[in-house]
Task: inverse folding
């Protein structure tokens, strides 16, 4: 049953998403693009928070770092948008690795406070125009947007498709992670750090790995975000954004459908109820309160027991392939 | 001294003012089934924690295969072939039995960290080969029917078996078991005894702590008895049962297991 939903679920999701710009006006296209980008960032946060179980409250820092890397390379050095992407992955990933090194031994609540600190330092740095390239409180404007050849009149939807492509890439990485030694190691150390060490897992290395991967994916989302607005500014990456990404993973649950649901509840629903002005953020608050009481592991929690079919089907006479 | 022995020499471990392990020395020889017994709170688990690097001891030496492992981190000690189970079972509760056992394959897997992002034909082969070993291990421990079950939903006796299967998946040279029969019924204990022999027959050295004296006297070949962190006796099961200091320690501790 569940398997069937997944087999048709993903292609169906992408077909619907690919056709969406045909029916959306420009305001809703912006919402849809942001939905896709936030989903990528939430998936990257899930690697650190959901899979590895580390209370990282500074994911917007890596998202911003990617966006600023792209913006600076494009505006100051004239690099084409697409060429900035690899750098916007590598720089946040390196930052993730370097920042995680001294802090991953910290217990949950301490780690949370430290990562908030990192996020605040980052915002202060860009607001104060660090190195004279970040544009201060106003950020950086007038980036050259990614053109998709042959789209003609549909060019307005180009940022949306760029984001969708990056989402596809992210899901590919997440899928690979789930069926690899490194990805499983993250689950093991989240479940029981000491037990993971006692069967030979170097928990320190894999915690840093989680930060590296999570930061790299968030950086990639940063590039498509800078591309969407052809601008970057500090407030899009402040601590409150980190709270949003943290809450999405907690409310949605540590699974792809969970993350999609989380972004929908925490970001799209408030947009739908925009006419109720700031009251719409009630949804945000209530979603957090009620899921934690009623579904503490999120709306759609992680599912385990994904054993390769070849082995499961054999049942008793194990794995004679 | 054969090279694959575990040699503890004058090991002392303190927690604040408490001397949990006091100047303890013993040698586990390759291929032995060795028992470490003593009343509750005698310091047995602490000895295991010293050997496995969870609580490194401040004084003394722990030699394994001729190398000093006293200050090595836990995961390095595992890579050298020493794997343990816990007195209070420590499994990955939300995950399935097969995934738990698969964790034991971590250090045997040839995948690099970047295979977590991109698979290659060789990483896929490695993945399949390791699942294969997992299912052989499940078969060895008669756990195949539970492969996809969530571990925390299973009865105690099965969880103990899963923990041993996970440890065995690492292909250890020395298997350390902390009270493997705790919480098991008579049938399960009997199966455990057979399992211990089958593991030994694979050439694996076994060091175990056990409260169940019948089990200890039946399976172990050599024993060290500790009380208040220090050794009060050592010998084969026959000698230990006759030893007045041992009888005294167990009677004195109101421990009616003996
Ligand atoms: N992590 C620890 N911190 C402080 N004291 C400990 C710790 N672990 C064990 N102890 C103490 O060391 C002594 C020996 O405990 P333990 O090794 O668990 O005994 P046993 O396994 O023989 O029942 C006990 O007094 C216990 O309270
Ligand atoms: Mg104990």
Result:
């Amino acid at each position: 049953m569940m398997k069937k939903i997944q087999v048709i679920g993903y292609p169906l999701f992408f077909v619907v998403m690919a056709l969406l710009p045909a029916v959306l006006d420009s305001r809703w296209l912006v919402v849809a693009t942001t939905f896709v980008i936030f989903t990528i960032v939430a998936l990257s946060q899930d690697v650190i928070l959901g899979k590895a179980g580390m209370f990282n409250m500074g994911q917007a820092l890596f998202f911003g770092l990617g966006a600023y890397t792209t913006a600076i390379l494009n505006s100051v050095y004239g690099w084409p948008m697409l060429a900035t992407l690899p750098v916007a992955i590598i720089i946040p990933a390196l930052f993730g690795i370097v920042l995680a090194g001294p802090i991953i031994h910290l217990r949950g609540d301490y780690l949370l406070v430290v990562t908030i600190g990192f996020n605040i330092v980052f915002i202060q740095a860009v607001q104060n125009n660090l190195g004279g390239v970040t544009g201060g409180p106003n950020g950086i404007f007038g980036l050259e947007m990614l053109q998709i050849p042959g789209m003609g009149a549909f060019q307005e939807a180009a940022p949306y498709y760029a984001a969708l492509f990056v989402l596809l890439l992210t899901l590919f990485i997440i899928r690979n992670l789930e069926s690899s030694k490194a990805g499983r190691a993250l689950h093991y150390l989240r479940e029981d750090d000491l037990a993971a060490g006692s069967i030979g897992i170097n928990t320190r290395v894999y915690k840093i790995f989680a930060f590296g991967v999570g930061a790299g994916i968030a950086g990639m989302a940063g590039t498509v975000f800078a591309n969407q607005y052809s601008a970057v500014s500090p407030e899009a990456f402040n601590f409150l954004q980190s709270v949003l990404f943290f809450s999405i993973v907690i409310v949605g649950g540590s699974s792809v459908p969970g993350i999609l649901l989380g972004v929908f509840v925490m970001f799209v629903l408030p947009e739908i109820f925009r006419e109720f002005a700031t009251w719409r953020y009630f949804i945000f608050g209530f979603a957090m309160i009620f899921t934690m009481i009623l579904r503490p592991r999120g709306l759609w929690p992680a599912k385990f027991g994904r054993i390769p079919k070849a082995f499961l089907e054999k049942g008793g006479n194990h794995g004679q392939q | 001294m054969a090279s694959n022995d575990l040699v503890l020499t004058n090991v002392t471990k303190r927690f604040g003012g408490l001397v949990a392990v006091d100047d303890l020395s013993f040698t586990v020889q390759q291929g032995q089934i060795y028992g470490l017994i003593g009343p509750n709170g005698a310091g047995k688990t602490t000895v295991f924690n010293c050997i496995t690097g969870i609580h490194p001891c401040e004084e003394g030496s722990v030699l394994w295969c001729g190398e000093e492992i006293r200050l090595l981190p836990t995961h390095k000690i595992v890579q050298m072939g020493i794997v343990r189970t816990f007195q209070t079972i420590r499994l990955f509760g939300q995950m399935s039995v097969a995934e738990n056992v698969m964790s034991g394959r971590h250090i045997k897997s040839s995948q690099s960290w970047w295979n977590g992002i991109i698979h290659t034909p060789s990483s896929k082969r490695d993945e399949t080969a390791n699942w294969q070993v997992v299912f052989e291990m499940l078969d060895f421990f008669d756990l195949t029917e539970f492969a996809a079950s969530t571990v925390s939903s299973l009865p105690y006796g099965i969880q103990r078996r899963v923990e041993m299967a996970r440890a065995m998946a690492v292909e250890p040279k020395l298997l350390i078991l902390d009270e493997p029969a705790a919480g098991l019924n008579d049938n399960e204990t009997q199966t455990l005894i057979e399992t211990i022999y089958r593991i030994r027959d694979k050439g694996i050295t076994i060091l175990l702590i056990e409260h169940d004296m019948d089990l200890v006297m039946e399976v172990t070949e050599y024993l060290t008895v500790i009380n208040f962190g220090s050794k009060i006796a050592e010998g084969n099961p026959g000698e230990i049962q006759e030893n007045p200091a041992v009888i005294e320690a167990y009677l004195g501790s109101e421990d009616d297991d003996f």
Remarks:
- The two ends of chain A are 25 Å apart (CA to CA).
- The CA atoms of residues 278 and 315 of chain A lie 56 Å apart.
- Confidence is low (pLDDT under 50) at residues 316-321 of chain A.
